[in-house]
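USER:
Class, as today's exercise, take the chain set out below, and explain how the chain folds.
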Amino acid sequence: MSIEQEILEKIKKFDKIIIHRHQRPDPDAYGSQCGLATILRDNFPGKKIYQVGESVKGLSWISEPEEIEDEVYSDALVIVTDTANQPRVDDKRYINGKALIKIDHHPNEDPYGSPCWVNTQASSCSEIIVDFANATNLKITDNAARMLYAGIVGDTGRFMYDATSAHTLKVASQLIQHDFDAAKINRRLDSIEFPVAKLAAYVYEHMELTVNGAAYIILNNEVMQQFDLKDASTAPIVPLIGKVVGVKCWTVLVQQKDGSYRLRIRSKAPVINELAKEYGGGGHPLASGAFMPDGQQIPDYIKKLDAIAASYTGEE
């Protein structure tokens, strides 16, 4: 039995299904979670399907999470999408269901759930959800297609990142045959608010670039207050540094209210997820995240990032 069929058979056994995704969600987290929820609602109208987690204003156009009581988890199947490890699952009640399934595209270093379906070759978890629907002959409606397309566009950087494959484009082609405005989604994911535009100018003016091609910017609390922004608002500026010629890998370090730092680590070619693991994080080879309790580790981190850039002699 294929993994897709195994998941479908488990879905058929439950009347209640609760779908989770990761904390600090991005378009793929929303798209895969809500896209799957919509597919299940459309194909199994007799089942109760829920999508839970924090509500993010900037992504509410994709869909909105739901608030449910603790008792709903009784005898429920829980599916977690786009979440590499259990500490990152949004809403810790995910362990309270009767059964758990993991569907993801990050390196499978925490293989929780049964079945546990991880495809690291997929551009996004949304792409996997489309594959699941196709393999099991589940109908994808216009609204589900809209959400899943948004997830794919978000995680591929509008098809610019290395994870974009011929299959990714085939799946995207399938989705845009549905009745929704794909160009509008592209524009929305490419647009930024005015305060973020001002922050982008600050980033370009203050970013540092080592001789070996490692770039970084430190956004401390003072800077964030200057632009009246929170950590979640910095996501759109992360790809900007990578547009600079000569940059091989880069990091945006954002200070949190408690003084700790969240690191958004990206690369054009050198593998950076092992470095992320050294600082309590992880992720894809070219896109990872990490954390620091304070700024004391930053100089040492920059040296390591620079060493990674120096060791890479191929084309960017």
Observations:
- Residues 27-43 form the longest helix (17 residues).
